[in-house]
């Protein structure tokens, strides 16, 4: 396959960036999208040009590092992570636009690499169960109904990639935040901190400069792990409940 | 059987011993050690700083737990978030001797299985401790909210895994590593928010600072700004994972690397059993030269999938057209009692053998079938989907083949490294104050790791072992002297690091870092991969110094050091692979026996199984660094087996 | 607490949801009343009169009407202020657009902001036209709403403004009702089809109902 790539190049956070065009030949259908970029980078290095910087690590769709907006879609046309997108999703002769996640809470570091530390701070605000090592009761002491365990798992699958924020026209982090709230709040182990968790995480989410939710559903469409839009609804309910229960 | 003891590219030094494990009954040793260990007064703990490198299961768990105890933790990861450490990719599960199934499991059985599975090259004391702690890990993870799979009654579900006959593996669909890691990450996040952990993400350790023979700090590079900084502490913990990426193609993350452990090795930490690398039998075969990494399909698939190849050589018919009696379910045939659930090393080698016979399937004949047709017929498609859905999806995504209809194609690939920094029972390396936990050490798996035991070991080390043993070191070694960046040892370590990076940038040759990585990787895969021979290893040992020389002549790293520069990161990691590969091959050459993941063709039984040479090699090989390309010193740690007596492993 | 509530994006959304539902409730009542126009001037004007004596004898003349007006005004203001503040925030959260863009959201979702502005302007015009009569086209008569309505819809621009605004209202209600349900935590997988159906039904009934009045005038059914 022969492709034309238009890639966002930006030297550092303080320098304005722009799209640059590259022609790439000899791309195989079986390559992953990132392997295609590897080929481009090898060519650029040999030519003495700077390779394109992009985040990636496990390349098996679980670490959440990869983060490209491909032709306007976070993670590209398939419902998966960029690293699991294969070139068979494209045609010979295609022009492909590659851009970084765009959100003011995710400033660009270089080229296609952005700073997603805001997500870590949202988790630090309450996305945990306080259970210091050694304090745990016997695992079977508290049975968890299978439906609740499955519900928790479905939300715990979030990989923190940030595609939801990138896809949201408001740069909102509701899907990410709600996934963790719902994972922990449905479990009996998470119930003592149920109210403070949702209040603190939402407050931190706002403090990071993420936008608000207008329920466009773009986040859930982009989510490679299929976290449902109703995750947000459930968090709204938790938040409303918490505001009634907790007096601050 | 030839003996290679006359081999002279290394020297033999004093034997080394683990003097921390107490004597006495094996099941009392951990209690005894914990009681012997001195404690640090809770009020004094915040005065102690501990550096933890890595945020995977071991590092994340250790950082959180040490901070909970009151220590000041300074932690590092090269990823943009501690949540992305490669433990996240572990699929299958975590072992624990809970015996919830009432199927005859016990701590002793897990201990026995692990020693046997490791082909009698692990320390009994360590393995027994691991088995004891396994039950606490499950409790801890459940309390943290890890959503393990559950039965309809609300209790935890388990499944069986390779190499054992009980069902002791706890799992969270095919994402157990992810869920366990998020549990540790969340506990760590709580400590970061509380100000007890100072977290440095996108920061890579590039050297160890040793002052007066003790580990006192690290040199690290901020990957965003390129700034080189020093950090100081009372103890340094390496939880930086294994070195599988020396093979270029492996199931490791692209940026997983050996720099932290290799730099520590260069500063005096012995490296043990580097040739013990694990080949995982069920990976997706490579599809071409562009391949950048390999993807594992969880071993749990072998519970229900049946592995086969055509009986005839060069049979290129589609699998559905090959009738039952022309298929060879070779694992079930050769190992009737364990069948498809034989340990990883055995399953991998058997796959290599049938492919070498010309019966492999798929492009290049480098693959075997893993067939779910029987499972779907027996359990129904829905049950199969429930159990393995995400793995099947992943397979289809990568290969564009639907495994519900066509059998999967799998082939072995490098997955885990049992070798690592030598540690004693306290997980302390030969450099006082330097600890290694998780895959970074060599301690618990011997020559072969059983499935679902890596997660168990990482969490055991991080949550329970290290936080107990490190107290003893800190209590016995109060540091009166403050060390800072002006200390000669720190200045020297920084200078060496800066020189190395400057040299990489200055060569301005004509070959990319990846091209060297691929070259060294292909070399070790060919000669130090699934099967090893003296001849091949000698070839590799001749070739590696040449590649190293060429590297420093032809490497091209664009850009500058004081910026975000992924090429520079990569090239710097390859510098260490080029030395580590040599030690791996040397270790493999010196160990003229087959055991576990290390298969020497010269040492096999008449029916082609691995033949250990216990009288000669019942030891862990701990290597001392001398200089790049110079002969290292071998220190042998003799292994004694009081409870599990070495036998020829038999899974037939 | 109230301050925290209002400062949170979620709090503001909840304010929008609740005020939106109040307005939808009002629209339904308003539509029912308006339908009386098809039963002739007597019945319609009597309904107009009843609005002023609503609640009597407990309530004084026009008190009921004024309570409704105050509640509605508060709802409109809270709804608009929240919307304005959230929109400002949303735009700030996503300052740089993608070079490669494609429309994907439904039309109703994408037009919530401008639709809201159109509706706001319409409400002002509608009050000036038919409540105060300030901008009324032909001799506004207090106490004769039937004639006033007929006058308004006898001009082309009256019809255009009204019909465009009602279409905008329909779309706004369609996304707004479903959205409010999610914001208030009422949505889930099993209930979603019902909620979407209700949203669509509300949108269609309200739009068609209101538009039937100018159509009635134009076709001479109402004259």
Please give a quick description of this structure.
The complex is a heterotrimer of chains A (248), B (652) and C (223). Chain A is an alpha+beta fold. Chain A contains eight helices and seven strands.
Structural features, described:
Chain B: Residues 1-28 are annotated as: Disordered. Chain B: It comes from Streptomyces violaceusniger. Chain B: One of its GO terms (molecular function) is succinate dehydrogenase (quinone) activity. The complex is a heterotrimer of chains A (248), B (652) and C (223). Helix content of chain A is 34%, strand content 12%. Chain A has 248 residues and is of the alpha+beta class. In chain A, strand 1 and strand 2 (18-24) form a beta hairpin. In chain A, helix 6 packs across helix 8. The mean pLDDT of chain A is 96. In chain B, helix 3 runs parallel beside helix 6 (176-193) and helix 4 packs across helix 5 (124-144). Chain B has helices at residues 29-36, 42-45, 57-69, 107-117, 124-144, 176-193, 259-266, 330-334, 344-356, 373-379, 381-399, 454-476, 488-507, 513-528, 534-554, 566-590, 614-617; strands at 11-12, 49-53, 72-76, 94-95, 158-159, 169-170, 197-200, 203-211, 214-222, 228-232, 235-238, 271-272, 277-283, 306-310, 327-328, 368-371, 408-417, 420-421, 434-436, 619-624, 633-638. Among the domains of chain B are: 280-414, Succinate dehydrogenase/fumarate reductase flavoprotein, catalytic domain (Flavocytochrome C3, Chain A, domain 1), CATH 3.90.700; 488-618, Fumarate reductase/succinate dehydrogenase flavoprotein-like, C-terminal domain (Methane Monooxygenase Hydroxylase, Chain G, domain 1). In chain B, strands 1-21-20-12-18 form a five-stranded mixed sheet. Chain B has a five-stranded parallel sheet with strand order 7-3-2-11-19. Chain B has a five-stranded antiparallel sheet with strand order 13-17-16-14-15. Chain C has a single domain (10-94, 105-219), classed as Fumarate reductase/succinate dehydrogenase, transmembrane subunit (3 helical TM bundles of succinate and fumarate reductases, Up-down Bundle). In chain C, 73% of the residues lie in helices and 0% in strands. Chain C is built from nine helices and no strands. In chain C, helix 2 crosses helix 8, helix 2 (9-34) packs across helix 9 and helix 8 (156-183) runs antiparallel to helix 9. Chains in contact: A-B, A-C. Chains A and B meet through helix 1, helix 2 and helix 3 of A and helix 3, helix 5, helix 6, helix 11 and helix 12 of B.
């Amino acid at each position: 396959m022969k492709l034309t790539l238009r890639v966002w190049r930006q030297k550092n956070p303080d320098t304005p960036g722009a799209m640059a065009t590259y022609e790439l030949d000899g791309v195989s259908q079986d390559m992953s999208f990132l392997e295609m970029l590897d080929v481009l980078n090898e060519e650029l290095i040999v030519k003495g040009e700077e390779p394109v910087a992009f985040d990636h690590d496990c390349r098996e769709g679980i670490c959440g590092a990869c983060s490209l907006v491909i032709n306007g879609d976070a993670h590209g046309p398939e419902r998966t992570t960029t690293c699991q997108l294969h070139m068979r999703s494209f045609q010979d002769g295609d022009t492909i636009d590659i851009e970084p996640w765009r959100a003011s809470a995710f400033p660009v570091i270089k080229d296609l690499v952005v700073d997603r530390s805001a997500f870590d701070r949202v988790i630090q605000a309450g996305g945990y169960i306080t259970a210091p090592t050694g304090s745990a009761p016997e695992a079977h002491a508290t049975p968890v109904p299978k439906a609740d365990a499955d519900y928790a798992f479905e939300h715990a699958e979030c990989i923190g990639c940030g595609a939801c924020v990138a896809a949201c026209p408001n740069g909102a982090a509701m899907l990410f935040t709600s996934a963790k709230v719902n994972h922990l709040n449905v479990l009996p182990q998470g119930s003592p901190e149920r109210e403070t968790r949702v209040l603190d995480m939402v407050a931190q989410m706002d403090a990071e400069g993420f936008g608000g939710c207008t329920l466009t559903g773009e986040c859930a469409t982009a989510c490679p792990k299929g976290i449902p839009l109703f995750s947000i609804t459930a968090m709204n309910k938790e938040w409303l409940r918490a505001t009634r229960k907790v007096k601050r | 059987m030839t003996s290679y003891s006359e081999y002279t590219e290394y020297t033999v030094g004093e034997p080394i011993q683990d003097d921390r494990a107490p004597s006495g009954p094996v099941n009392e040793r951990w209690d005894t050690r914990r009681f012997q260990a001195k404690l640090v007064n809770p009020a004094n703990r915040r005065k102690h700083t501990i550096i933890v490198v890595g945020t995977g299961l071991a590092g994340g768990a250790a950082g959180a737990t040490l901070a909970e105890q009151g220590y000041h933790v300074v932690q590092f990861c090269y990823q943009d978030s501690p949540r992305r450490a490669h433990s996240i990719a572990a699929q299958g599960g975590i072992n624990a001797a809970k015996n919830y199934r009432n199927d005859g499991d016990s701590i002793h059985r897990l201990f026995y299985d692990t020693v046997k599975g490791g082909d009698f090259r692990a320390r009994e004391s360590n393995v027994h401790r691991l088995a004891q702690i396994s039950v606490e890990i499950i409790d801890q993870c459940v309390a943290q909210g890890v959503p393990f799979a559950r039965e309809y009654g609300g209790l935890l579900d388990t499944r069986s895994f390779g190499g054992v006959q009980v069902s002791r593996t706890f799992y969270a669909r095919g994402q157990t590593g992810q869920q366990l890691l998020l549990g540790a990450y969340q506990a760590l996040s709580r400590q970061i928010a509380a100000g007890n952990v100072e977290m440095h993400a996108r920061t890579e350790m590039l050297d160890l600072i040793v002052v007066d023979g003790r580990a006192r700090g690290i040199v690290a590079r901020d990957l965003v700004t390129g700034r080189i900084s020093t950090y100081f502490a009372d103890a340094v913990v390496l939880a930086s994972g294994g070195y599988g990426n020396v093979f270029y193609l492996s199931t490791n993350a692209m940026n997983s690397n050996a720099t932290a452990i290799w730099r520590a090795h260069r500063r005096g930490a012995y490296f043990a059993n580097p040739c013990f690398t694990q080949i995982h039998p069920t990976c997706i075969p490579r599809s071409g030269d562009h391949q950048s990494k390999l993807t594992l399909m969880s071993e749990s698939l072998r519970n229900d999938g049946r592995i086969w190849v055509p009986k005839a050589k060069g049979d290129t018919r589609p699998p559905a057209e090959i009738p039952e009696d022309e298929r060879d379910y070779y694992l079930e045939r050769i190992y009737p009692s364990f069948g498809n659930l034989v340990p990883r090393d055995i399953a991998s080698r058997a796959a290599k053998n049938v492919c070498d016979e010309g019966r492999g399937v798929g492009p290049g004949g480098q693959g075997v079938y893993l067939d779910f047709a029987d499972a779907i017929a027996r359990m129904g498609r829905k049950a199969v989907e429930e159990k393995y859905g995400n793995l099947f999806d992943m397979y289809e995504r990568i290969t564009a083949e639907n495994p519900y209809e066509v059998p999967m194609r799998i082939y072995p690939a490098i997955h885990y490294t049992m070798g690592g920094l030598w540690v004693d029972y306290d997980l302390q390396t030969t450099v006082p104050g330097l600890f290694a936990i998780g895959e970074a050490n060599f301690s618990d798996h011997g020559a072969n790791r059983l499935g679902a035991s890596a997660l168990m070991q990482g969490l055991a080390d991080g949550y329970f072992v290290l936080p107990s043993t490190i107290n003893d070191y800190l209590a016995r070694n109060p540091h009166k002297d403050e060390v800072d960046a002006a200390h000669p040892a720190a200045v020297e370590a920084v200078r060496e690091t800066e020189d190395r990076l400057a040299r990489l940038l200055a060569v301005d040759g004509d070959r990319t870092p990846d091209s060297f990585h691929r070259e060294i990787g292909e070399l070790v895969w060919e000669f130090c991969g699934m099967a090893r021979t003296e001849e091949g290893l000698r070839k590799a040992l001749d070739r590696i110094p040449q590649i190293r020389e060429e590297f420093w002549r032809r490497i091209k790293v664009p850009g500058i050091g004081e910026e975000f520069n992924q090429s520079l990161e990569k090239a710097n990691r390859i510098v260490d692979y080029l030395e580590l590969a040599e030690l791996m091959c040397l270790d493999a050459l010196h160990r003229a026996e087959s055991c576990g993941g290390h298969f020497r063709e010269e040492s096999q039984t008449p029916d082609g199984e691995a033949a250990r040479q216990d009288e000669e090699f019942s030891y862990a090989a701990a290597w001392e660094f001398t200089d790049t390309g110079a002969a290292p010193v071998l220190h042998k740690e003799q292994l004694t087996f009081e409870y599990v007596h070495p036998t020829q492993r038999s899974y037939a | 607490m109230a301050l925290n509530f209002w400062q949170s994006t979620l709090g503001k959304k909840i304010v929008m949801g609740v005020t939106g539902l109040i307005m939808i409730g009002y629209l339904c009542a308003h539509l029912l009343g308006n339908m009386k126009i098809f039963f002739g001037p007597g019945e319609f004007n009597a309904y107009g009169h009843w609005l002023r004596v609503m609640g009597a004898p407990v309530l004084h003349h026009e008190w009921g009407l004024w309570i409704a007006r105050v509640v509605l005004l508060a709802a409109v203001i809270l709804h608009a202020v929240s919307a304005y503040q959230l929109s400002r925030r949303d735009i700030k959260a996503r300052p740089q657009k993608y070079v490669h863009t494609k429309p994907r959201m439904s039309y109703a979702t994408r037009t919530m902001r401008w639709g809201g502005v159109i509706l706001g302007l319409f409400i002002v015009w509608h009050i000036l036209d038919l409540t105060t009569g300030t901008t009324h086209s032909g001799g506004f008569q207090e106490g004769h709403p039937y004639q006033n309505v007929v006058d308004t819809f006898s001009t082309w621009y009256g019809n255009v403004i009204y019909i465009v605004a009602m279409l905008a209202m329909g779309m706004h209600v369609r996304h707004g009702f479903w959205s409010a349900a999610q914001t208030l935590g009422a949505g889930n997988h099993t209930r979603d089809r019902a909620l979407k159906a209700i949203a669509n039904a509300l949108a269609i009934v309200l739009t068609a109902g209101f538009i039937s009045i100018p159509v009635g005038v134009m076709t001479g059914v109402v004259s």
